[in-house]
Design brief:
Rossmann fold; about 30% helix; 2 domains; about 15% strand; eight-stranded mixed β-sheet; seven-stranded parallel β-sheet; elongated; 16 helices
Length: about 550
C-alpha cells in the first residue's frame, strides 16, 4: 500500500473536474478523508497515487486543524527524514487557506450583490465589475500579503517544498504559491509574489523584500519552520527574531524537523504563543529508532589515500544507482569531484559558494539521472529528495552529530532500502563517539578484503570523555557564563581597529577547474570481488595487515 512520502510525487495527474467530486468517495481515500481535508486536496492526493497517510501525518494533521479560542495549536513535530513531514504541514495549512479564501469570496459576492440590488432599487443601471489589473504593472503595484509563510534553511529545500505545494493545489482555484530564495533575480520573484497565498522562503531574501516594501507579513496567520533545528541555530537567530516580530499577529506556529536537541527545543519555545506553554509536541521516531531501512557501516582508513581507495571500491559497487558523497569543506568537495571526474565517474559538486543557477542545474541533472555521484557539503544534507539515491558515503564526518541523521536520510526514501557508508580516520574518532552518543547506536567496524587497515583503532566508546560535574557546556566555558540564544546578537567582529563583517565566501571557487592539483585518486579496482572473497568482514584490531 502506497504512502505519502516526501516528494515521491511522480504519478501522472487526472485534471478532470470529476476527480474532485469522486475523490472522497473512493475507498482508498478513506484514511485521508478521515483527516477532514478539503475535497480539492483529496483529489490532488488521489492523483499523486497515495492512499494512506504516514504516521506523522496521522498525528500532526488533526492537531494542526484543531481550532481553539485563540486560533490553532502550536506544534513541534519530530520525525525521521522521508516520513512525509512536508505534507504533514502543507495539507493543514492549505486546507485552512482554502477555507479562508472561500469565506472571503462569499463576503465579496454578498457585498457586490448588495451593491447591485441597491442600484437597481434606485432605478440606476447595474454597476460593472472593474477590469482585472495586471500585477506586473508598476503603476498599480501592491505588496504581496500572504496568509501563510514557510521558512526553510536552504534554497534547495525551499524549492522542494514549493514544488510539493504546487502539486497539492492543482485543483484549487486562486491559491497561489510563491518562492523567495537568494541567488535569483529580484524582479522575477517580485512578479511571482503578486497575489500569493502561501510563500516559501529562506530568511535572508525574505527580509530583503520585506524591508523594501515588496511583501508585508502583518497578515500571516500561519508560520511554519521546516528543518527547525537548523532554523533555530545561531546562524539564523537574528533573522528569525525579526521574522518573529513581523508575524507577531499569527495564529499558529509549527516546527518540523528530524531532530530536536534539548537546547534547540528551549529556543523553539520562545517563538510559540505564551512561551510554549500550550505547544503540542509530536515525536514519531527518536534518533535511536529512525532509519531502520538504512544499513549503516563504518570502515577505518589508515590515511587519506587509503580512504580514497575505499571510496573507489564503494563507488564501483554493482548495486549502486546514484550516490551522495559528503565532504567537510567546499575545497575538499571541489577537489574530490574533479578527481572523480578524471577517474571516469559522472560526478559533480554542490556547495554554498556556487551560484543558484549552477546549483539548480546540477540538482536537475541528478534528478534526471545524468549525474550518478553528487559530491556535496552539508548544504545537501536537507531538502534533496531523489528516490534513486541508493548510497550515502560520509567521506568527511559532519561537525554536528545531528547532521549525520540528516545526511544518511538522503537515501532510503519513500520506504526504500538504503546504504550509509562512513569512512573514518583516527582523527575522526571523537566525532564518531558523538554520533554514537546521539543516536545511541554503536558502529561495528567492517573491513574489505585487500583494503584492511594496518593500524589498530581503539573502540569508539573509549573516545568520548566522561561528563563533567556541574553540567555540560563547551570546554573552557566560564561557570555561569551566559550563552547566546535566539534573538541575541554577537555584533560585528572587530578587526584591526575597525568593524568588519567577515564573509565565509571571501575566496569563492569558480568551478571544478578552480583547484589545480595532481590527482591522487587511484582506482583500486574491487579487491573483494574475486571469487569466494568476502565482501566485508568485521574489523579485528591487531590482526589486519599482518
Amino acid at each position: 500500500m502506497a504512502s505519502f512520502e516526501e516528494k515521491d510525487l511522480l504519478a501522472t495527474a487526472d485534471t478532470t473536474p470529476s476527480a474532485i467530486e469522486t475523490a472522497a468517495d473512493e475507498p482508498n481515500q478513506d484514511r485521508f478523508a478521515a483527516l477532514g481535508l478539503a475535497p480539492e486536496l483529496l483529489a490532488a492526493v488521489c492523483d499523486l497515487g497515495f492512499t494512506e497517510p504516514t504516521a506523522v501525518q496521522q498525528r500532526a494533521i488533526p492537531l494542526a486543524l484543531e481550532p481553539h479560542a485563540e486560533g490553532f495549536n502550536d506544534l513541534m513535530v519530530s520525525s525521521q527524514t522521508g516520513s512525509g513531514k512536508t505534507a504533514a504541514f502543507l495539507l493543514p495549512v492549505l486546507h485552512t487557506l482554502i477555507g479562508m479564501q472561500a469565506e472571503e469570496a462569499a463576503r465579496e459576492k454578498a457585498a457586490w450583490d448588495a451593491k447591485v440590488a441597491a442600484a437597481l432599487a434606485a432605478g440606476e443601471p447595474a454597476p460593472k465589475k472593474p477590469r482585472r489589473r495586471s500585477p506586473l504593472d508598476a503603476r498599480k503595484f501592491k505588496p504581496a500579503v500572504p496568509g501563510a509563510l514557510v521558512l526553510c534553511p536552504t534554497r534547495e529545500l525551499a524549492q522542494q517544498v514549493a514544488a510539493d505545494a504546487i502539486d497539492l493545489v492543482k485543483h484549487c482555484r486562486g491559491v497561489r504559491i510563491a518562492t523567495i530564495v537568494g541567488g535569483m533575480p529580484y524582479q522575477l520573484q517580485i512578479a511571482k509574489l503578486q497575489n500569493a497565498n502561501l510563500v516559501v522562503a529562506t530568511p535572508g531574501r525574505l527580509l530583503d523584500l520585506a524591508g523594501s516594501g515588496q511583501i508585508k507579513l502583518d497578515q500571516v496567520r500561519f508560520l511554519v519552520m521546516d528543518e527547525a533545528d537548523r532554523m533555530l541555530d545561531l546562524g539564523f537567530a537574528d533573522a528569525l527574531a525579526e521574522v518573529h516580530q513581523l508575524t507577531s499577529q499569527r495564529q499558529q506556529t509549527m516546527m518540523f524537523s528530524a531532530t530536536f536537541a534539548p537546547r534547540i527545543q528551549q529556543l523553539a519555545l520562545r517563538v510559540m504563543h505564551d512561551g510554549g506553554s500550550k505547544v503540542q509536541k509530536v515525536q514519531v521516531d527518536t534518533p535511536q529508532q529512525s532509519h531502520a531501512n538504512i544499513r549503516q557501516e563504518l570502515y577505518w582508513a589508515d590515511s587519506p589515500e587509503h580512504k580514497r581507495r575505499l571510496l573507489d571500491y564503494w563507488l564501483r559497487d554493482p548495486g549502486i544507482d546514484q550516490a551522495i558523497v559528503f565532504a567537510c569543506t567546499q575545497i575538499e568537495c571541489e577537489q574530490l569531484a574533479e578527481e572523480l571526474q578524471q577517474t571516469g565517474f559522472a560526478a559533480v559538486s554542490l556547495h554554498g559558494a556556487l551560484s543558484q543557477a549552477v546549483r539548480n542545474r546540477r540538482l536537475g541533472a541528478l534528478r534526471d539521472g545524468r549525474v550518478q555521484i553528487l559530491v556535496a557539503t552539508d548544504v545537501a544534507a536537507r531538502g534533496i529528495d531523489v528516490p534513486t539515491i541508493t548510497h550515502v558515503i560520509n567521506f568527511g564526518l559532519p561537525m554536528k552529530a545531528e547532521d549525520y541523521t540528516h545526511r544518511i536520510g538522503r537515501t532510503g526514501r519513500a520506504g526504500r532500502d538504503g546504504l550509509a557508508i562512513t569512512l573514518a580516520e583516527f582523527r575522526d574518532r571523537r566525532r564518531l563517539a558523538d554520533i554514537e552518543a546521539y543516536t545511541q547506536q554503536h558502529f561495528r567496524p567492517l573491513t574489505i578484503g585487500g583494503l584492511e587497515p594496518t593500524k589498530v583503532f581503539p573502540p569508539i566508546q573509549e573516545q568520548r570523555p566522561p561528563a563533567r560535574k556541574g553540567g555540560g557546556g563547551r570546554p573552557g566555558a566560564r561557570s555561569g557564563a551566559p550563552r547566546r540564544g535566539f534573538g541575541e546578537s554577537r555584533g560585528p567582529k572587530q578587526i584591526g581597529g575597525g568593524f568588519k563583517e567577515k564573509s565565509p565566501f571571501d575566496a569563492r571557487p569558480s568551478g571544478a577547474g578552480s583547484y589545480k592539483k595532481e590527482s591522487s585518486f587511484k582506482p583500486a579496482g574491487r579487491p573483494a570481488a574475486r571469487a569466494g572473497a568476502p565482501r566485508a568482514k568485521p574489523y579485528a584490531p591487531g590482526k589486519a595487515g599482518r
